[in-house]
Amino acid sequence: MTSLEKIIHLTTQSEYDCMGDEGRIFDGIDLSKVDVLGQGTKHDICTSSSTKRIVNQNEALGYVTRSGICHSFTANGRCVSMFKTLFTNYCTHDCKYCQNSTEFKRNKTIYSYTPEELARITISLYKGNYIEGLFLSSGISSDENLTTEKMLETLKILKEKYNFAGYIHFKVLPGVSYEYIKQASEMADRLSVNIETPSNNYLSELSSTKNYVKDILKRQYYIKKLEIKKELPAGQTTQLVVGACGESDFDIFKRVLKEYEEMMLKRVYYSVFNPVPGTSLEDINAQPTWREHRLYQMDWLYRVYSFSEKEIKIAFDEEGFLNNKDPKLYIALNTLDSGVDPNEASYDELLRVPGIGPKSAYRIVNYRKKNKIYKREQLQNLGVRTKNATPFLKINGTEYSRIDRWIECQTQ
Ligand code: SF4
């Protein structure tokens, strides 16, 4: 019995029948299907969400880490568990990295839900307090609109028949019509369409069937229109596969800027390339996970710390790659020539010091209205990570040496 089967078994014991060699069946649904379609979304990322929808604290759920269940965090830091699944693993596209692709060389069983089946499974997990929401993606049959119709039908059944009020993240399929995206926005909290690569040239290396502008960017623009009309509580996000086709981090950064500025995205997610056995890219080396981590840090500098494009560019080497160092530290080492005085520096200047984040910068600015900062302990009490910050500060006239900064850099 797989982990997801166990959850369903525990949740609905009275309805569960073990059928021996014929497979495990829950309420007429083959549980192998539940497991395979749950596993099929493991590269789709949704680790953060920022819906304005209030979820009743009395409905707090237990913590589970299982295949098919993922966790997102709301803007206030609360963890939300979601049932993450494909509607079908049948797909007519040929993306070289994907196990659902037409290029996949191994035998696989094709599964599809009916809308009623998927709604029943979701509501069982929801009633059992294992999930608070649904993350619904899918392979794409010959017509993306037909597949989307079935996904939307699932949401309708969930909401109208079962009164489901949980969080919904709905994947918009490449090429789907505006009318279907609009219908999805009326039922889902968040929509996303994966851009996968930073440009059309890179996408064409990975897929001959998807068009970057027509199938993806145009759909993002449709979602943006709906967001402007306030029809989407948690906005739109997207995801990139990092390093599947030789693109540099700077190529990714340039695309990400456009995503935030032109498409009004809430978040971009990065999924480092890992070859899947049986796909056309199975012999390509996996990318190091630190690459994904450094891209998230770069993203954070832009989105949360409001670093300019010009400042962030400093973190890339001549070939356009980030090195395996905290980009904020790297930028500070290359720009902060003299110590920053916490009594004099502006909020923005403080934010550029490693070890000082938005909260601690804000606290320093407030604290110094009535107090003078003359020792490190005061900063520590205000939430500053003094181990990282001290080599870049001038406190009470004392500036720390370059060798300290160098050591700090080496120990990150
Ligand atoms: S469209 Fe999606 S599911 Fe289909 S092959 Fe490409 S990545 Fe896989």
Folded structure, characterized:
Keywords: Iron, Iron-sulfur, Metal-binding, S-adenosyl-L-methionine. GO terms for molecular function: catalytic activity; DNA binding; iron-sulfur cluster binding; metal ion binding. It comes from Candidatus Methanofastidiosum methylothiophilum. Residues 72-308 form the Radical SAM core domain. This is Biotin synthase. There is one protein chain. The longest helix has 18 residues, at 144-161. The chain has 412 residues and is an alpha/beta fold. The chain has a 7-stranded mixed β-sheet. Strands 1-2-3 form a 3-stranded antiparallel β-sheet. Strands 11-12 form a two-stranded antiparallel sheet. It contains 16 helices and 12 strands. The protein starts with a helix and ends with a helix. Helices cover 39% and strands 12% of the residues. A hairpin with a 5-residue loop joins strand 1 (16-18) and strand 2. It has helices at 3-11, 31-39, 115-127, 144-161, 178-187, 200-206, 212-228, 249-262, 289-303, 309-313, 327-335, 347-351, 358-367, 376-381, 386-389, 402-410, and strands spanning 16-18, 24-26, 29-30, 69-73, 79-86, 133-137, 167-171, 190-192, 236-242, 267-272, 394-395, 398-399. The chain folds into 2 domains: 3-235, Alpha-Beta Barrel (TIM Barrel); 327-410, no CATH class. The structure holds iron/sulfur cluster. Iron/sulfur cluster is lined by residues 91, 93, 95, 98, 100-101, 139-140.
